[in-house]
Design a protein that fits this description.
mainly alpha; about 0% strand; globular
Length: about 290
């Protein structure tokens, strides 16, 4: 399709869906390791640094006396995550690492998701005014601020959870026990039948690990990508302004109303997706401690 065949509305959305990367075009393949999305990395790392600074400040400000509001808020958050970990991960020794990891995941994803509440055209306007992204070919002409709407970020975090669950599965059950479980479960049989069923058991276990990893990443990506698209559609209402007439005033009012309602509702999605990702990470690590 030629550029002239694309409507202004479609062109607006397609522009906002292209990352600042090393190739200058939209990624078409699900997995392409030749493409590096600099914007996703910048904002994901930036939010991670803020989380680490937040937790560091909380640790530095701990006092034995009457705690301040900041310390109380952090302590409540830490206790809440520890309670969730206790109910899922049976090993106290494992929880010493898993509970802080779950807390970091929750705060990190929450901050990344919150970036979606910024006006969708705020950064493009700023880059245009500064001259960094005023026209195609400028360095920041393409830029997406929401890291969790990038499949690479969501699946990268999901793969990290997979590696942690595999580590604890091998650590708790020992390498021999872990491999034995892969080959003998879920269909266990006595005698030589176990050898016949071993390939099927291995295949089912590999499919289970792959399905959990893909669903964990795709759930986060899908919800945040859909929310980003809705914000873009709402922005188009305001973009239809053509002066002080009935149609423009109606679209402008709809833009403000729909944007406000969706932003308020989106706060719930931001927190819910972070909570779901954290809880599923705990569940997968907890399952790694279980023996069939």
């Amino acid at each position: 399709m030629a550029a002239s065949d694309i409507s202004p509305q479609s062109g607006y959305i397609q522009h906002h869906l292209v990352h600042l990367n090393n190739v200058g075009t939209k990624q078409t393949a699900v997995a392409n390791f030749d493409i590096v999305n600099y914007d996703s990395l910048f904002w994901a790392i930036g939010m991670g640094v803020i989380v680490l600074f937040f937790l560091w400040r909380a640790a530095r400000s701990v006092t034995a006396g009457v705690p301040g509001r900041f310390q109380m808020a952090v302590e409540m958050l830490v206790e809440w995550v520890e309670d969730q970990a206790k109910s899922i991960v049976p090993s106290e020794k494992s929880r010493r690492f898993v509970a802080p990891l779950a807390l970091t995941i929750f705060l990190w994803i929450t901050l990344m998701n919150t970036l979606d509440l910024l006006p969708v055209d705020l950064l493009p306007w700023f880059f245009g005014v500064s001259g960094l992204g005023a026209q195609e070919g400028d360095w920041l002409y393409y830029h997406r601020i929401l890291p969790t709407a990038d499949l690479n970020i969501a699946m990268g975090m999901s793969l990290g959870v997979l590696l942690v669950s595999l580590y604890y599965g091998i650590k708790i059950k020992k390498p021999t026990g872990f491999v034995k479980e892969l080959l003998t479960m879920p269909f266990n049989a006595p005698g030589l039948a176990v050898i016949v069923l071993a390939p099927f058991n291995l295949l089912l276990n590999l499919i289970e690990y792959a399905a959990k990893t893909v669903s964990l990443g795709m759930r986060l990506f899908g919800n945040m990508f859909a929310g980003e698209l809705i914000f873009m559609l709402i922005a188009l209402l305001g973009g239809a302004w053509s002066g002080f007439n009935a149609a423009s005033l109606g679209l402008g009012f709809g833009h403000i109303l729909a944007g406000s309602v969706w932003a308020i509702f989106h706060i719930l999605i931001v927190l819910l997706q972070a909570f779901i990702f954290m809880m599923l990470a705990l569940v997968y690590v907890g399952q790694a401690h279980e023996s069939h």
